[in-house]
Structure formats: C-alpha cells, structure tokens
C-alpha cells in the first residue's frame, strides 16, 4: 500500500498517519478504555472534570423539550446533565463500546428517554436542521477530520441553533503549563496502566491534547464552518476551554 502524501495525513498523537488509520487506532483506544473511562477521568483530573462538565452544561442552557445532539457522548456524562434539565437528548458516538457503557449507566439511573446512536461525527446520518443544540465534550480532538465534523454540526442544527464544545487546550498561565505537561506525559500513562491496564491509550490521549489547535485557531475553524458569534471561555487559563457559536 502506498503512503499518502503529507497533506493527506493526520495526527495520531505525535505520529502522522493516513486518515483511515487514525480512525482505526482511535477506535481501538476507546474500545480498550471504555469500561474504566469514567474512573480514569476522576483519577486524572482529581474529579475536576465533573465541575468542568457542570459549567459546560450551564453554558449550554438546555431548555425543556428542545432537541440536543450530544456528539461523542459515549458514557453519558453530558447527556445525563442535559436530560435532567428537560432536554430531549440524542447521544451519538462512533464507538459502540462507549455507547454500551453509557446505556448501562442510564439504565442504572432509570433514564430511559435518551436516544443512543452509533455515528461518525464527520458524516452524520441525521437530516439537516434536526437539532436545537449540538454539544461535544472532550471528543472533537479525536475526530479524524475536524473541519468535516464542524460542517456536519452546522448542517444538522436549526437556524438559531447553538454549538458548544468542551475540550482541552493550552493553558496560558505562566508556569502552570510546564507543570501540567510534566504531569500528563509522565504520570497519566502510569495511572492508565494501574487503573485500566493500558498505558499506551492514555499516552495517546495526552499527545492528542498537545496536537489540538490553540484556542484562537480552533475558534477560527468554527467560524469558517459557518457559525457566528463564536466565543471562547477559558478554564484554568485555557487548560480546558468552552467554544460556542450560533447558526444564524
């Protein structure tokens, strides 16, 4: 098999690979970590991911009865919060193992109104203008072609619809970035090995954060996808950021 030209290759952590190879490898990562994903989030962030997700859902301002697509929603953390506020939520994820964990968690909570669907963020099967809001939390950096995913988000939103993305970024606090880099590269894979028995998957997740576009660059990508009033809300100086936009 021939090697794709450089301009057709995408990042998988610090590697440059063919798009289909990234899709395959990311799928393997999340299949591997699905069962321990939420426990690992607690261990890696000291539980702070829960606060970030609460803040994210407050920014979305879900309303009773409105249709929200939670993309890369896997284990249901965002969907559960949206549903508690009365929204009608469709949880979509490319990885069935992650969805299976989310469905099991929903049943344990007595939540039976959520819709679960295996979907590729870059090629959604929903008709245009199907949703009032689109959310994606800690998922878009794992998408093979981010521009296509943003275009699809814009397509499936109704006019006046809201786009919200919660994702790791690059902190701008002096000194904190270096400390976090050392922690994430040296400690997180060890935590992954101890809890999930998988250091390599968590090494990729750390590397994927480093390769994700900085806040201004990602905001520009959202704007190019057709969204207006694009805003960025940094958390911890930009270690995590909430990006948002409207479909005019």
Which CATH top level class fits? Alpha Beta
Percentage of residues in DSSP E strands: 15-25%
The CATH architecture:
3-Layer(aba) Sandwich
Global Rg: 17 Å
Number of strands: 9
Count of spatially separate domains = 1
The termini sit apart by 44 Å
What overall form do the CA principal axes indicate?
Answer: globular
Structural class: alpha/beta
Give the neighbour order of strands across the main sheet.
Answer: 5-4-3-6-7-9-8
Helix share bin: 40-55%
Average pLDDT metric = 88
Uncertain runs = none
Largest sheet: 7 strands, mixed
Question: Total helix count?
Answer: 10
Q: How would you sum up this structure, described in words?
A:
The chain contains ten helices and nine strands. The chain has 248 residues and is α/β, with parallel strands linked by helices. The protein has one domain: Vaccinia Virus protein VP39 (Rossmann fold, 3-Layer(aba) Sandwich). The strands form two sheets. Strands 5-4-3-6-7-9-8 form a seven-stranded mixed β-sheet, with helices on both faces. A two-stranded antiparallel sheet has the order 1-2. Helix 4 (77-84) links the parallel strand 3 (67-71) and strand 4 (88-93). The model has no long low-confidence stretch (mean pLDDT 88).
